Amino acid sequence: MEARERARDAELKKELDATLQARRELGEEYESALVDSFLDKVDQRLDSVVDRRVRRQLAEQQMTVARDTRRGHPRGDSWGERFGFAVVSLVLAIPLSAIAVVNADLPGLLIAWGGIVAVNALHSGAWPGRPRGGRRPREEQRSGSGSDWEG
Q1: Share in percent of the chain as helix, strand, coil (round to 5)
Q2: Residue 76's pLDDT is what?
């Protein structure tokens, strides 16, 4: 793949050389049009590189999800889920903070925020002995076993 990228870079260098040569031949009045044309080619090159990388990453994610699904472990602990949980907890923290301050001043506020932090820590898996998302795997829920070493 590096050879292909080097070939494209060489092609872009040739385009730049041709643009500079055309500018010398045509004069300054065409400079703006020549630069715009060259920049369009650079944009196309960047778009193709980005598209290729995005397609590759999507394919890798789809493969990962497909592997997890085949193994019976759907990925319920995605970054989006954790981010959404954090956003919802912060939105709910606003009225909870107001209620706590009105009813119990600073101690109430500290207790409310302690609870918010604890819920987020539990959900993120920051406490030892808990998997991310605060959930146990299905097999573990059915069997009641708490060991990570059992298959």
Answers
A1: 80, 0, 20
A2: 55
Q: Are 82 and 123 in contact (CB under 8 A)?
A: yes
**Half-sphere exposure of residue 79, counting CA atoms within 13 Å on the CB side?**
1
Distance CA 102, CA 39 (A): 59
DSSP 108-135: HHHHHHHHHHHHHHHHHT-STT--GGG-
Report CA 135 to chain centroid distance, whole Å: 22
Comparing C-alpha atoms, which of 136, 135, 97, 139 is closest to residue 116? 97
Q: How far apart are CA 142 and CA 111, in angstroms?
A: 35
- Taking only Cα atoms into account, the Rg of the chain, rounded to an integer number of angstroms, comes to 28
pLDDT digits (tens, 9 = 90+) for 122-141: 887 766 665 554 444 444 44
